[in-house]
Design a protein that fits this description.
The complex is a heterodimer of chains A (228) and B (247). By secondary structure, chain A is an all-alpha fold. Chain A has one domain. Chain A has nine helices and no strands. Chain B has one domain. Chain B has eight helices and no strands. The chains are: A mainly alpha (228), B mainly alpha (247). Chains A and B meet through helix 8 and helix 9 of A and helix 5 and helix 6 of B.
């Protein structure tokens, strides 16, 4: 028997595989991005397009759309691999299941979170924010979207075994990610106003670190239970 | 130390008998305390200088708010024990805590709104403590929704246990994140390091009411967990013997 590759090598292999698969099916991961842009556009249409009004609304519109889009993207985080037995192979591979699923979550973030990080500043600009807000918004969405993917993975794992995933997934995940919304919207509002935003960014960052340490364990446990 | 007395609770027949024996007693104690507490709170306690009679809703509001968090903690602990040591009775207890806890949370929110209208002039404010309580309700609802949407009982147990534990980690985070806003809610009166800021005549009925709610919760939780054990063990030999003996 050949020696087993290290956990890191295995995780990188999973990451590469998922990226290749995603490159062949671009529709899947572009949908949440389209959804995100569309929802952000709907806010000014629902309100009146008066610039000061819009600027006040921008953080709320950005983060609510971000939460909903990331929720939508979670649907296909594990589902396909659970259906064709890939996850079972992961569990049987002798590698750390947590590390492999974390690699999957990381790919998922690259495919759905990162495009939104890029789109976030544009959305805020469209809502009347000044260009000076761009770095702050970029940073806030970057940190926030990582947490959304990590915590979302727990919900995706828990709802794997259920028939009607969608509504249940939102009921499970949205209360858990509410702090991201609070700190993210606050950081964005500060960035738009040109205020000091260190506090909100640090809190967003600590949420990210906390979920990076704990969420993968919970997600792995959840997926394992759903596979039994 | 000998722990066998504790281990016995893990056995469904023992738990079934224990819960059947004690739940009525706890319920009885709860009713006695409830009557005493309500009489003390609604009749004997003096009128508040600032809020006049309205403050008396505290005797319903505070115990339910306290029990809401208490039952969430119990639920998560029972679920965690069930998950780690694979004790089915613990999962039944966790399942029994959820509906009781959800109703306590709902009662605390509703009585809070009724209290808020005359004192703050509004039914609902976006105050940290109100919002975190609302999120506790969402956690309970999510827990129950997940549990009911998985058909396999064992998997439902373990998946909802993971959710309960994640929720328990999240409760303080939710609390502090909403705490970040400025608070309109009055500062805590009971849990303060310099002792409660209430006169004794107002305080004792409140403590009695908290006792009544706690006993009520334990009784309901035992009854629900017992029903859950009954549902799971249907067809089991011990249960058939048990029922034959009772008949």
């Amino acid at each position: 028997m050949s020696s087993r590759p290290s956990a890191l090598a295995a995780a990188v292999a999973v990451l590469e595989r998922d990226l290749v698969l995603a490159a062949r099916r671009p529709g899947e991961w572009l949908q949440p991005l389209g959804f995100f842009v569309l929802v952000t556009v709907l806010f000014p249409l629902a309100l009146d397009p008066e610039p000061t009004r819009l600027r006040e609304l921008a953080p709320a519109a950005l983060w609510v759309s971000l939460l909903l889009a990331s929720l939508l993207a979670l649907e296909f985080l594990f589902r396909e691999d659970a259906r064709d037995g890939t996850l079972e192979q992961f569990a049987l591979s002798g590698q750390s299941f947590t590390a492999l699923l974390l690699a999957k979550t990381a790919t998922h973030w690259i495919l759905t979170g990162l495009p939104m990080v890029v789109a976030g500043p544009f959305a805020v600009l469209a809502l009347g924010a000044p260009a000076t807000a761009i770095p702050g918004v970029l940073l806030a969405v970057l940190l926030g979207s990582v947490t959304l993917s990590l915590i979302g993975a727990i919900g995706a794992g828990l709802t794997l075994g259920t028939r009607r995933g969608g509504a249940l997934l939102s009921l499970l995940v949205l209360p858990l990610v509410m702090p991201v919304l609070v700190f993210g919207a606050r950081a964005t509002a500060r960035a738009i106003a040109g205020d000091e935003m260190a506090e909100a960014i640090l809190l967003l960052g600590s949420l990210g670190v906390l979920s990076l340490t704990l969420a993968p364990l919970a997600a792995a446990a959840a997926v394992r239970i759903s596979m039994e | 130390m000998n722990w066998t007395w504790l281990h016995r609770f893990g056995s469904p027949p023992y738990f079934y008998r224990f819960a059947g024996r004690w739940a009525p007693w706890f319920l009885g104690i709860s009713i006695v305390l409830l009557l005493a507490g309500l009489y003390g709170g609604l009749v004997m306690a003096p009128v508040d200088y600032y809020q006049s009679e309205v403050y008396r809703i505290i005797y319903v509001h505070v115990p339910s708010a306290y029990l809401a968090l208490m039952s969430y903690t119990w639920m998560a602990l029972a679920a965690a024990i069930g998950l780690i040591w694979r004790i089915k009775v613990c999962h039944a207890i966790a399942a029994g805590c959820a509906p009781a806890g959800a109703s306590f949370t709902a009662v605390s929110l509703i009585t809070g709104m009724i209290w808020g209208e005359p004192t703050w002039g509004t039914w609902w404010i976006w105050d940290p403590r109100l919002v975190s309580q609302l999120f506790v309700l969402f956690f309970f609802l999510g827990y129950m929704a997940l549990r009911s949407s998985i058909e396999d009982r064992d998997r439902a147990d373990r998946a909802s246990a993971v959710l309960a534990i994640v929720g328990l980690v999240n409760v303080p985070i939710v609390h502090y994140s909403v705490d970040w806003w400025n608070s309109l809610h009055q500062a805590p009166t009971l849990m303060r390091s310099d002792g409660p800021s209430m006169p004794m005549a107002m305080l004792w009925p409140l403590l009695v009411m908290i006792g009544a709610y706690t006993f009520y919760f334990v009784a309901i939780m035992l009854m629900r967990a017992r029903a859950e054990v009954l549902r799971r063990e249907r067809g089991g030999t011990w249960l058939r013997e048990e029922l034959a003996r009772a008949a």
